[in-house]
Amino acid sequence: MDINGTNIIGVDIEKEMKDSYLAYSMSVIVGRALPDVRDGLKPVHRRILYTLYENGLGPEKAYRKSADTVGSVLGRYHPHGDASVYDALVRMAQDFSLRYPLVDGHGNFGSIDGDPPAAYRYTEAKMSKISVSMLTDIEKKTVNFVPNYDDRLQEPAVLPSRFPNLLVNGSTGIAVGMATNIPPHNLREVIDGVCHLIDNPDATLDELMQFIKGPDFPTGGIVMGKAGIRAAYATGRGRITLRARAEIEEDKNNRFKIVVTEIPYMVNKSRLIENIANLVKDKRIEGISDLRDESDREGMRIVIELKRDANPQIVLNHLYTYTQMQETVSAIMLALSDGQPKVMSLKEMLEQYLAFQGEIIVRRTRYDLEKAQERAHILEGLKIALDNLDEVLSILRSSKSIPEGKSALMERFGLSEAQASAIVAMRLGQLTGLERSKIENELAELLSQIEEYKKILSDDHLVMEIVREEISTLRDKYGDERRTEIQAVSGEVDIEDLIPVEDCAITLTHYGYLKRQAVDAYKTQRRGGRGVMGMQRREEDFVEELFISSTHDYVLFFTNRGKVYRLKCYEIPECSRQAKGTNIVNLLPLEPEEKVTSMIKVDKIEDSKYLVMITKNGIIKRTELGAFKSARKNGLIAINLDEGDELVWVRQTEGSADLIIATKNGKAIRFMEESIRPIARTGRGVRAIRLMEGDHVVGMSTVRDNATLLVISEAGLGRRTAPSEIKVQHRGGKGIIIYQTDKKDSFVAGIKIVNDDDDVLMISDDGVIIRIRADEIPVQSRYAGGVKAIRVNEGAKVVTLARAPKEDISDDEGEEDVPAEEVQSQEAPASEKEADNVVSPAITD
């Protein structure tokens, strides 16, 4: 619109608000409120430390006014308020806020009583001794640098952080829609845990907790029980109960007093005392006659004198109940990983730190190698000059200019320009025999260093050994004793003991939304029913996977790229039937374009069982289940794939299964599992079925006695067939017809071996799930077209099916069928559906 000469562009206010708030949210999350998992710092803290480093304010230098540092940070890297920078600097200097302060402050930097720090024109600051290791080797291109806010300078995107600062000092922050609260830990314990993880990459949480006992707060205190700690370390979230350290002392006049020497982390001492006094005044706590603060430079001491008839233990319990002498700390292990906010377990944080430190060592070694090679190159040129000294001098004397002399030397001895420049710049004193010997010795030493650098770069184990050696040095130098005591609580149970053992259904959608819900959420209906809506979905999303498991089983997630990840079933968030669930990228570190294609349950990981895998192009592989004991959230290679191939199906077997593999075009092959030789976890596999052009595998099942093979088409037609109609063949053949696919809508959606007393769950790509009795589907020959098993809506099709224990038929009380007019077709584009409809759930037949 053009109004009075002003061009006005109309926008949708709702869309504009959403876009603007999203941009603001991401700016707060990434650029202000959350720490990076690698160095444990938010941008403002990182900029303060780097500015101190640039200004040469190391621990051996004199203090400098905080105003100078704050001004430098604002002018160079952090264009925000000076108060925010100074507040961050102050906190980094407070020994009651950080377990290992990163700034050495001189002056009034506040107190545990809540006294504010002096203005920055009065205080002084420099780097603490331990903070130097946060920037070690930063000049050796160990980290990436990015432009500052006005593209005038370069600042580090992350600091080298030679100790695990995120866990050691912890972090708190409130972003938009999320918050982090990582408690501080003991440096010695964390580094011991890192060293153990270097030696044992497959270490369990219990093993790591032998070293990392729990949080270690700068103000001490007592942690009550380990359940909250274990929950935080296992899932990234937990509630930790922290108490003040209080002793009951008896006076000479037979009266008691309570002496508090440590209080919970982040509790204001003066407010605590004031709160106790108010409670006494209001008579909510009785038995206290006097209250005073005797704290001094030697430490904290709060004295609570009791009346003669008061029971000291009852008074102390009341103080724990009604005051901040007992606090519940909610641990949220949220940090930025690859620029994305992610809740991580203890092991994930340690693994990410180790990977980062390995990268630091590699980049530092490459830098040192490059410098050593450059210097060796120069020394080799100098050595050539000394070996031909008379000729070199003659060439230089006969040259009219330095460039002419350099050119003549380069042409005569095959030197580079750098070597020729070094020769021309040689002093006469370097022509002596002693200087010649120095050059030869330096060259020999450099060649030895170059070999060592190359050896390091070619050996990942050697890189990790260097990481271990360097962090162990820091542990010995800065490590101290634990301040926070961890007390056992009578009757405490482990987090896993709190999870009831029950069956649940796990579903995964095409767009990667994963959820867990009670298996009885879908009541059995009659064959041909319309089903119930399984979840609220985004447009064009549909359920691809459904898996029945126990809450205490392991769930192995296999991806199209041949990797496997592992979670406990209860770690998958539980949701209602209508909820869409949690995006799986928030639970597993999937790479771009990586997609989960199979899930199986594993109650125990043992060598006596096997995993049989089949790829989209018909390659099959059998591997002992024990080879996946080390499967973890970061993933392992499950199979090496050919270019263009994908892993689509995985089965757990006892080692002697009879396998049936079906394809989209209605072909199937049956052969014995023993015909597949077990191979290592990273092997490729062998051919299972020879596919025609345009065909691909849609399912694999294991034959059971007195069971039938259920075949369901994309149109919702189904029938059961006796497995005996599919004769056993040699592996690698073309197979036989199990379903006529002469019609466009009669492609096979999936197969399943079922018993008469089983229930079958079928899912269409518009999100409708139906559960029917298997015995309602008739047994027919392999040439029959089947009966209507599920009525799919127009434009929709069946994408997967699963088997569940039989239950009584519902009378539909409390359940509503979804009317056809309310179920909108949510088809994905044809190209997407054609590629993705091969995916089916992996559930033990």
Walkthrough of the structure:
- The chain is globular and about 95 Å long.
- It is α+β, with helices and mostly antiparallel strands.
- The strands form 13 sheets. Strands 16-11-10-19 form a four-stranded mixed sheet.
- It contains 17 helices and 43 strands.
- Strand 28 and strand 29 (about 620-625) form a beta hairpin.
Task: Compose a concise summary of this entry.
By secondary structure, the protein is α+β, with helices and mostly antiparallel strands. It is built from 17 helices and 43 strands.
Q: Which key terms come to mind for this protein?
A:
single chain; alpha+beta; Topoisomerase, domain 3; four-stranded mixed sheet; 17 helices; 43 strands; disordered C terminus
Across the major sheet, the strand order is: 16-11-10-19
User: Do you know the CATH topology of the largest domain?
Assistant: Neuraminidase
CATH superfamily of the largest domain: DNA gyrase/topoisomerase IV, subunit A, C-terminal
Low-confidence segments, given as residue ranges, are: 808-845
Structural class: alpha+beta
CATH architecture of the largest domain: 6 Propeller
Count the strands?
A: 43
Text of the CATH class of the largest domain: Mainly Beta
Oligomer: single chain
User: Helix segment count?
Assistant: 17
Proportion of β residues? 15-25%
